[in-house]
Amino acid sequence: MRYLPLTDADRSAMLSVIGAGSIDELFADVPAEARLTAPISGLPKHATEMAVERHMARLSANNTTAGSVPFFLGAGAYRHHVPATVDHMIQRGEFLTAYTPYQPEIAQGTLQVLFEFQTQVARLFGTDVANASLYDGSTACWEAIAMAGRITKRGRAVLSGGVHPHYVETARTMAKFTGDVLDTCAPVLEASADEDALIAKIDAQTSCVVVQYPDILGRIPDLARIAQAAQAAGALLIAVVTEPVALGVLQSPGSLGADIVVGEGQSLGVGLQFGGPYLGLFGCREKYLRQIPGRLCGETVDADGKRGFVLTLSTREQHIRREKATSNICTNSGLCALAFSIHMTLLGGSGLSNMARLSHHAARKTAAALAEVPGVTVVNNHYFNEFAVTLPRDARQIVREMADRQVLGGISLGRLYPQEDALANGMVVAATECTTDEDIAALVAALKEVLA
Amino acid sequence: MNAINPNGWRPSMGEGAPDNAIQTFTGNRALQLEEALIFELGDADRSGVDFPETGGIDMSALGPMARAERPELPGLSEPETVRHYTRLSRQNYAIDLGLFPLGSCTMKHNPRLDEKVARMPGFADVHPLQPVHTVQGALGVINELAHWLIELTGMHGVAMTPKAGAHGELCGLLCIRAALEAKGDPRDVILVPESAHGTNPATAAFAGFKVENIPATPDGRVDTAALIARLGPDVAGVMITNPNTCGLFERDLKTIADAVHAAGGYVYCDGANFNAIVGRVRPGDLGVDAMHINLHKTFSTPHGGGGPGSGPVVLSEALSPFGPLPFTARQADGSIKLIEEEQAHDEHPQAFGRMCAFHGQMGMYTRALAYILSHGADGLRQVSGDAVLNANYVLRSLEDVLDAPFGASGPCMHEALFSDDGFAEGFSTNDLAKGLIDEGYHPMTVYFPLVVHGAMLVEPTETESRAGLDQFIGAMRSLAERARAGDELLKSAPHLAPRRRLDETLAARKPKLVYKD
Amino acid sequence: MTRYFTKDHEWIAVEGDEATVGITDYAQSQLGDITFVELPAEGSEVGKGDSASVVDSVKAASDVYAPVSGKVTVANAALEDQPELVNTDPEGEGWLWKMALADTAELEGLMDEAAYQAYVAEL
Q1: ipTM exceeding cut-off 0.90 for this assembly
Q2: Helices (H), B2-98
Q3: Is the pTM of the predicted complex or chain greater than 0.90?
């Protein structure tokens, strides 16, 4: 077996050092009636690299890949171009096969990357500090709600109807068990979201107000206004960013007054990967430092006075504080954070801004083309690279029929909100710098055909 | 024994100045290169990515939230970027460099086929919300891996979406909560052995349970009598790690499980150490109701310097109806159905909710599936066998120079546990661990489990050769002797790493988490 | 002023029905470098044996229990910037909080200095 270095001669020599007659003897503590005496049935025997690759390639071929067709899906996962350098660097064994950097003397590579990553995220979000990443955007969003509860000692969070429904569902699941109350605005398919309704819900029991920026339909809420209303009531504003590229051309949530900013970092460096692993981003004001969930990397010096980095403030974490830990999070999304950081380093501020401008440009052209299709209305007044349209009938079916014509044209709101019949004719459409004029023409042609 | 340097020469013995006295202009030391931060190297006008001209683009649709200036993020050209990260990578220890004996963490070889497979476009370049009929292959991977996880554990169902081990623990406990609530049973106590990993009590508390500790016996196992005596109408369940954190198999798990079930509770098994028994015993046959599997430990997905992980939870028949959304189901015609919120009402009405957006850690599923298929049923059985063989070999080769508190309890499983008993006054486990760094190894797990003083938990894994183990054993023997003799140089180790011991107190007292100009 | 000690290594210096609370020199030496002190809110009520404060070192977070019941009047703000005072002067400038005692009878059962030293010597 190619992954196992021991030969039978090694095994018997080692067994004689141990004083055991066979490997099976070493499992004597397993009760005999539960011990398997032969390989598990059903699972085939070991396979060659070639055979496994063939099997997996067959499964891979049974998908329509984003890069092979005109592609307009978003809603929290975006197809951006990732430079070849990113994947090359993250496959260096010293990054790929390293452990969590608990031995800082021989983990400065990972630690310096995390320190740089934290600084990049903080600058992008406009927050004082950021952590070394969480699982993904949805879990980061819940962690922020829980943290706001700890800070304000209040248990009622108000959520905008523009927050990604999977994020809301994740938070609702957790809140059910922690006893927090989530007061969620209903999603509406209109040009401006629910800022007035949201503000009206804020009261003296509100721990936080959660607003997605841009939101699930691509609308861009006025965070400054909501921040003011929340903070006047002693609540925190949590901004959720599922498309970090947007911040190349939009004001940062921190600069608009958000107390905690969380997000999904997948757009930069990570790729679509059918939904995971992704990258939870988390930044906040410095005064809440000791309430931050997840790992933190900090600067310090070594015994010779040289600058170095360590994981720090670990007493917040569960392996030390056990039942009093700040969260259930025990790991970060290290390799995805590395990919994000490399991509961001390659871009720089000007590159990110250009990437965002091109994405916006593609979205504008897409919106203009769709607006010309009879029966189709563009909902948004403002958007970054994603917007909603209404179609003349149930969008779920239209999306499927476009896919049959080899066009992945958008995400139906019926898929995202199966219980909301009023949204059934809605579809969200996203474009990026990868979107070509030919893609847009193919989308329009497919939609016209399906609607005809 | 194959010593690391048979003639006893050490770098400090060379003619002339000791090597750490030689100063260089750059601060570099030959292949050991110092590297500045990107904030010191780059600026926001520099970029390693070319884009078409963006000058004339009308940005008015952004509306009033548009920003005036580009973000203050430093950029580097491609060659500078490649060099920056290559230099940083060389300051890391990694499995690709050598034995990584981190007990309970299972640092074993990561097959490169798995990396190749994960990057196949049908897995890497598909969107999670594509129409289901356009992602049948990706759903097929999830379904196939789910099937094998169920087979290998002898369980009834599996929740695939938890994003890491602790997330899986939470998922399992939420299943127990949901099952109790469905019965209208208000039990709220979870029993946790005192040797448990800190995530167990933390997760139980987070899921709304009260945690009570169960003592260990002197031979390093759960006190079965004490546990059974504590069972009653308030006990929702137990969380047991098997093999446990002392590296021993909990022989009484089936007895405990039967008693817990008879008392109306559920058994959660922390599957962190499932790699030691895969293919040799199925947790389902021991009465387990829920167990998470760290795919990076048992099925060798890469650790990546701290994630991403993946923690699917296998479930018993009693708990399966409560598993979270989404999941997959194979239809009679061979197609794979995705059960999300939309379908749940009819097909999975008791789901307790959703653990995260989308479908979980797809990129880890592909790697784990390729690993399982590569090893097959016979290979996986050999994996656990060799892992246990290697650990016992280390245990028996070191127990004359290092105290092995449970050495007399019989064979260990996949990891060997030692204590600092016998070290010279003032010498600690940490000193020996830091000495390993100078010898070219990553330290073992230290000070865990808490039930052993100055614990050292060594897990060699099955992917180490006998020659590699012999060299490691030689290094460990040398260090153990230095710690017993009180070699002062050990107390300031490491001396040869890119950094010496770091001031963690300063980092925690005056946290500096971001770069400031 | 009378100083009492607990088995959990807190000290309490009492003057009338006012008192100052901190951790002992033995406790700080066991904890190592203190990196952060989470102080009780001024004005909060604490019960005897409640966790009123948390002292963090690099690798541990330790609860500090109120030796007696009462109301927290002042928390030692100097510790926010200089948590190391708990190491350098645990029974002086490194005090944690001052409180108004609810019931001086609760002081009975605490140890005096000699009894505490004897208790520590046994550990």
Answers
A1: yes
A2: 38-41, 78-89
A3: yes
